[in-house]
Amino acid sequence: MNVIARSRVHLGVKGDAASNRHAGREFFSEIFLAMAAMSMWAGAASGAEPRTVVIGFSASQTGNLNVEGIRQINGVSLWVDDVNAAGGIPLADGTKVKVAAKFYDDESNKSRVQELYTRLISGDKADFLISPYSSGLTDAAAVIAEQKNKIMITAGAASDSTYKKGFTLVYQTYTPASRYLTGAVDLLMKSDPGARKLAIVNEKDKFSADVVAELKKYAEAKGFQIVMFEGYDTGTADFAPFINKIPADTDAIMGGGHFSDTSTFARQLYEKGSRAKMVALLVAPPEPRFAELGEAATGVVGSSQWEPAARYSKENAKGVEWYGPGVADFEAGYQAKFHEEPSYHSAGGYAAGLLLEKAIRNCGSTDTEKVKAALDAIDIMTFYGRLSFVVAPASHGLQKGHEMIYIQWQRDAGGSLVKQLVWPEDTATAGVIPMPKR
Amino acid sequence: MRILISLLDGLLIGFVYGLSAMGLSLIWGVMKVINLSHGAVMALGMFFSYAAISRFHPGLALPAVAVFGMLLGLLIYGVAVHRVISAPHLSSLLATFAVNMIIIGVGTAVFSTSPRNIDYSAGTMVLGDIRLPGTRLLAAGASILVTAVLYYFLYRTRSGKAIRAVANNRMAAGLMGISPTRSLALSFSIGTGLAALAGGLVATMFPFTILSGSTYEVKSFVICVLGGLGNPLGALLGGLILGGIEGVVPTFMPVSWVPVLEFGLFILVLVLRPGGLLGEK
Amino acid sequence: MKRWYQAGFWLPVAIMLAWGAAVWAGGEDAAREKAFTLIMFVGLASSLNILLGYTGYVSFGHIVFFGLGGYMGFYLMAVCAWSLPLAALAGGVVSALIAGLLGLAVLRLRGAYFALATIGVNEAARSFVSNFEPFGGSTGMSLNFSVYQQYGGAGKALWLTFALMVAVTASAVLVSAMIKNSRFGLGLLAIREDEDAAMVMGVRTPRAKTIAYMASAFFPGVIGTLYFFKNGNVEPGDAFQLHMSIELLVMVMLGGQGTVLGPLLGAVTYQGMRGYMLTSPLFKDLHLAVAGAVLLLIVLFVPAGLVGWLRGYFPKLRRALE
Number of A:B CB contacts under 8 A? Predict the structure, then answer.
């Protein structure tokens, strides 16, 4: 109270109409002074100013990856809020550090990425980095991260190739591309043992190409015949030429790319009356917005890094250390802040932050070397699933512990479209159904 | 059989390609301006039709898109093109390109780049094993209708003949009492109206963003060169050829080689027969 | 015509070298990154100017040489383990050779047809590379991080790339100045004004145009290699961006086509504007629209660009503003 009164005198607050013009400015100056005084007072009581750790990244707020990009940004910012609400991350010396996120829009375009990351490190004094969304952009950013000795946690960027390039400070949150659709083959073998013919269609970019390369190998090893294996250019909207090429007796169609093209592909498969018994696609099906396709979405299987209905919990962690909020808590927090259901991109963003938080907490410092050692050793179970890394130099940073969850859109008793978890079987919420007759 | 389905798919789309290229071709033919905002206008047409079809019946919405395109064209002509109509080509190229950038810039800010879909289904026409999406048939039908109307306009109405006169010889037409500015503005707006309408039709078939127009713009260039710049019927033919290629070639080649083929053909025609397959008009 | 020892000739080159030296001396990474992008565009714009400004041939797809030369140079580094300077040079030479071949076909076209053809060439190149397995197809090629050790670590490698970029751009500007003040350049300007008259007056137009085309393709090839080396990877989507190509056009027009200083001023102004707008929350979404508006104003009211305007306003400086 005294502080405020003193500041009023300092500013010479007058009550008459003549100084109304300055009243606004004076009001804010008052408040600022009051707050400064109070925080100094509070700081004196707690012992030190809390330091803020800056997490820097570039995000795809515009450009063709913006749906995924924005969800990821949301996940990270929720994590920031949660950490700060708890007072910060405790260090070995007894202090707590808060976190702040700083990001720029990279427009899903590579040419600015290196400049933006350099700016984040030199100008915004970022202590740790999170990657851009796509694998191509991440490779460019990783060069800067390695050069400036900053740890970068990748979210998105699932292509395996990034981790085979000799980087030592890059750590992957997502399950790598090579494990994205292999479970769909297992699922198919279980649900339709007679199926033999598989058509694989993919977007021609690093991520999707990696996924289908492994998928093809895995499927052939399991005895499937690949009747079609082709890529389409990014940004394709007309899939009719592709769909016309798929043989009529194909049992399953798998593949895809990113949200926009994959959902278009699913829609056009429906319009063309495709008769495949299983359709398993990348990235798009787990997104809640996929339901907008209506009938075209029914029966489509997708693989997801994480689902709101996931069953990860302390109880079934099977001996692995549990850390972070539970699935329900994360969802509730996300819903409250963003008024939408979280997708796996949101969860991935949050998990990236969680990894940093746990590593800093484990080693008790924000020093790059110590945190790196902590990350190399980390093995935890979170709401997002299990997280641990490969440390062999050839694939350093590749995500080891995390597995994909497979979902399928089905009609529930009331007739509306919902996502059901169909694989792995032990955590499934429903059995897989064949594609409806068209 | 598969080739037949692919060919039909391609030809149906080809009509729409042709429609969009006609707008570009007309503007070039009349005033020797290559409208580089063609793609952006198409994209705006897509958004307009998205807004209109959700509220009105397509029979009403699509003509509205065309009118929207024409008004937009008048605006663009007045602001950007009129001053440089007699200047060297580079000026008009850059002026229309600047308009393109402005439209896309503002469009990105307003609409963001999230893809949108028109949820309009016209059913599927089934002829035995051939399944043709209804939206494609409607789009092709609309394109043919509009081409016929355009021809009627250019050859049977006074304004249309005035446009052809100005295209032929601007100065002489002026001396004969035809206002060149009026005809130029009118033909530019018809060109953009066609572009917007083509965009509107495309939107009923595929998802789109503000950036989708550029693919069609480049295709329109290819088509105009194939069919002869300035020749609307040639544009339709060129569109059919392109659509046919896009439909049939993938059946015996990976789909991603199609653009190489398209552009190879484009350069070939430019070099060997710059007047286009049907000749300029 | 300037004598080679007069101010107008040396000013642009001197500016480039001084700028590069200042950033180098400062040793700051952020300044280097920013300068790298700017200087890269100055080099690209200057090379486009040789074709557009001097010869009067509007190329919308000039970026294709950046892409093809860059891909070639990158291939030599990634697969054949060539060193950066050599690979960059090779990238430039390959670009120039491709331009020579291409020129045989497309330089016969005039005006708008040529412009459209250049778009076609760019798109064809992109589609082709995207399918061409030795170049990595659609996923492109990448360098293992250990490659940077050859140059003493990533930090040193990035500075080396910067130095080379300054050198290339300075050479591009120098060559541009030399062409403008030579007899050869005079022939190009004649072609720009009226190609048929130039032919009649004895200018060997096919040869002149081809040489100009090749010269304008060499520098982007070198620059492309340097850019992709720095990024550590190359993909078809990055190498043939039509959008980037058109931005080059805007830069040349903005600065003043047909002048040596023009591309420099234009590139710096445009990129500076763009860089500012991208990180400012107010303009972030509108940078393209603002750039478009600027271009429109220039084309409608100040077609001679910044240099032209400055020359009009400050007649005394005409000697230096070339």
Answer: 73
